[in-house]
Amino acid sequence: MSALGPAGASESGDYWRRHAADAVHWNAWNERTLALARESDRPLFVSVGFLACHWCLVMERETFQDARVARLLNERFVPVLVDREERPDLDRRFMTAAAAAGWETGWPLNLWLTPGLDPFHSETYLPPESRDGRPGLRPLLEDVDRLWRERRADVLADAAGLKEALAVRDRELRLEKEHDPEVSTRAARALAASYDGAGFGPPPRVPRPALHDFFLYRRFRTGDRAALELSVRALRRMAEGAIFDAVDGGFHRYASDPEWRRPHYEKLLADNAALARAYLRAYAASGDPELAQVARATLDWMLAELALPGGGLAAGLAADSPPAPGAAPEEGAYYREGARGGRPRPPRDGQAVTASNGTALSALALGASLLKEPRWGNAAAGLGRFFETLLSTGAGRLTHRAPGGGPEAFPADYAAAIEGFLDLFEWDFETSRLDRAGAWGVRLEELVFRADGRCDSDEPAPCEEAAALSAFSRLHAATGDRRWKRAAAALLRKHAAVLRETPLSSPSL
Question: N or C: at which end does the chain have fewer Cβ atoms within 10 angstroms?
Answer without folding.
Answer: N
